[in-house]
Specification:
The structure is a homodimer.
Chain A (H helix, E strand, L loop, with lengths): L17 H26 L4 H15 L6 H8 L3 H13 L3 E5 L7 E5 L1 H23 L3 H19 L5
Helix pairs in contact in A: 1-2, 3-4
Chain B binds a DNA duplex through helix 3 and helix 4.
DNA sequence: CGTAATATCTCGTTCAGCGAGATTATCGCC
DNA sequence: GGCGATAATCTCGCTGAACGAGATATTACG
């Protein structure tokens, strides 16, 4: 599977078929994006995990899911102790607030503070604008092609996640 | 910028314009991919950084760049001590070998051992195959659209990386 | 009402990554 | 051809992120 038997390519492993090169390209994008996250984290006295936590909380908000501490830990792959630590750090920086759920008083709901949102927009805004400009240069059917590809790729990655 | 003034959407922040939804989709893919990396790491007694290191070394190999310890540390954003630690771990697991460069005997060249490649293929092979199947269902012009999008997006993320 | 299940937190430990500095090898200069 | 400057990697000691185990508080079930 994916063997490269033809010699003479750029790397010692031989030439890559065209579609596989596209897969590498997708992976390269994810790597670059991760580096930007790490940069944002370092610049604001946070750790990559904290940034991922904020993104996760904003996603939950966008999806109208209750942003509980437990959900956060599960999404980040942390145990309960680690989850508490992340929230402690974000709370200390004033980026999230702990709110007891009145329906189920065992739960802690997390609210992302406006300052954190503003911070994120300042940093990621230009990057988002850049991608939006790219998308604006595509016509609607091309955008639909991109959407189908990303959706399908995500479905591939999301399938069968082991506990 | 990117404000959502229209109420009544799914999340408390309102509805997202269509293209912005595509940006979120791209980010979601990067997040899912990162989770898979972490899963691969945990399953093989490694840390996410170690996996990223292996990927980096294979990329360097593919690009016919010399895979030195220094380059690795720079790409991963680690200092020299951390870089040594990563290589120590990978060497202890038998995934890479340290090789003194005969041209410049200060340098250490890193070779990824076949066992590590095999391990990676076992885990990521099905995922790669899945994406390849998606791409096979696209016609050449659609694949070109995807390629243009990913290349442009990467250019956006790669521009102005701060030290 | 008691017992089980659920959600979060506390405590102690491990080890990844950092800063500072040591070590070894190469290069440029005269 | 030796000598300081530069470069690549490694060693040491330390901080703190994340883990496992278990405590605490709240709700659901019978």
């Amino acid at each position: 599977m994916h063997d490269n038997h033809e010699p003479g390519g750029p790397g010692p492993l031989g030439r890559e078929p065209d579609n596989l090169q596209l897969v590498h390209l997708l992976r390269a994008v994810t790597v670059d994006f991760g580096l930007r996250q790490a940069e944002f984290a370092a610049r604001n006295g946070m750790h990559p995990t904290d940034v991922r936590a904020l993104i996760c909380l904003l996603d939950a908000d966008r999806a109208a899911e209750p942003a509980t501490a437990g959900l956060l830990g599960a999404r980040l792959g942390l145990n309960s102790a680690g989850t508490t630590a992340v929230i402690d750090r974000l709370e200390r920086l004033g980026h999230v607030a702990r709110i007891r759920d009145d329906q189920d008083r065992r739960r802690i709901l997390l609210r992302v503070e406006p300052g954190a949102v503003r911070l994120g927009r300042e940093f990621f805004g230009p990057l988002i604008d850049g991608v939006l400009r790219v998308l604006d240069s595509f016509d609607p059917s091309e955008r639909d092609t991109v959407r189908r590809f990303l959706t399908s790729a995500r479905a591939v990655f999301a399938s069968e996640p082991r506990p």
